[in-house]
Amino acid sequence: MIKVSVIGAHGRMGRTVVGAVDSADDMVIAQQLDAGDSFDIVNSQNTDIAVDFTIPSVTLNNVLELVKRDISVVVGTTGWTEEKYEKIRTALADHPEVGVFIAPNFAISAVLADYFAGVAARYFESAEVIELHHPDKVDAPSGTAIHTAHTIADARRAANLRGIPDGTQNDTSARGEVIDGIHVHAVRLRGLNAHEEVLLGNAGEQLTIRADSFDRGSFMPGVLLAIRNMATQSHPGLTVGLDSFLNL
Q1: Three-state SS for 109?
Q2: Are the CB atoms for 122 and 156 separated by under 8 Å?
Q3: Where are the domains of the chain?
Q4: Is a pLDDT exceeding 80 seen at residue 33?
Q5: Which residues form the Dihydrodipicolinate reductase C-terminal domain (predicted)?
Q6: 119-132 pLDDT, tens per residue?
Q7: Which residue among 3, 95, 133, 183 is the active-site one?
Q8: Angle between helices 56-68 and 82-92 (to 10 degrees)
Q9: 19 is annotated as contributing to ligand binding
Q10: For residues 76 and 53, is the Cβ–Cβ distance under 8 A?
Q11: Is the peptide bond before 135 cis (omega within 30 degrees of 0)?
Q12: Which CATH class is domain 108-214?
């Protein structure tokens, strides 16, 4: 049995993770921590994998604390930057057997949409990303959309494409955030859960790639997949993206 401790266990996603682990035949909940709880109850003897679904302001410190305790971590909290990744890599250098896995999104549909966007982006002159979420989401744009923008930009660079055409010259406030040369738009609307559209266009044609997650349960197959991979296979160091475990 894989012993799983959940950090942020009382939050919306944390409670869903606890339920998914409880329902899995090969896993058991070891510890449940939330805001104010001490990490002293989590150690490498009672925990095989820790899962962090907290908030961006605390997740880095949580991961660093778990690495210090020689516990591998699956992270679903967003808000990661290259600077934060580098702090994780530095901490892992002293713990070569420990792995940290961070996913911008655990929904299989979203991971595939990101992958397909990278495949298609080299064939289109224009590309934009629209992400749509519930209004309680604390970050904008989403980590998924940021990751997709980088995926598209990488594909365009590999294909030696020029900059995306955009006639706006002065006031660009309505054009969304520009991430790696790609315009990304964030919608926050009551009734939504988690959705992303990638719009790709050429003269006379358009390709739309859309992923919709209607319920938090849609993320659980990806979370369980990550837990199993981190617990049963050798993944030391930092791994980013569920596509690492999908054989794409």
Answers
A1: helix
A2: yes
A3: 2-102+217-245, 108-214
A4: yes
A5: 113-245
A6: 999 999 999 999 99
A7: 133
A8: 10
A9: no
A10: yes
A11: no
A12: alpha beta
What percent of the chain is modeled with pLDDT above 90? 87
Task: Give the pLDDT confidence of 181-228 residue by residue, as tens digits.
Answer: 999 999 999 999 999 999 999 999 999 999 999 998 999 999 999 999
Residue 220 CA to chain centroid, in angstroms?
13
Two tokens, residue 14: 């944390």
Q: What is the pLDDT of residue 212?
A: 97
* 9 annotated as belonging to a binding site for a ligand: yes
Active site residue 137: yes
Task: Tell whether the model's pLDDT for residue 169 goes beyond 80.
Answer: no
105: annotated binding-site residue?
yes
> Please, which contacts does 202-210 make with residues 24 or more away whose CB atoms are closer than 8 Å?
202/123, 202/124, 202/125, 202/126, 203/125, 207/120, 207/124, 209/113, 209/116, 209/117, 209/120, 210/113
Q: Which of 3, 84, 95, 137 is catalytic?
A: 137
DSSP tally for the chain: helices H, then strands E: 6, 11
Residue 103 labeled ligand binder: yes
Question: pTM value?
Answer: 0.85
| Residues 159, 167: Cα–Cα separation, whole Å | 23
Helix ranges (DSSP H) in 11-160 = 12-23, 56-68, 82-92, 108-120, 143-158
Percentage with pLDDT > 70 across the chain? 100
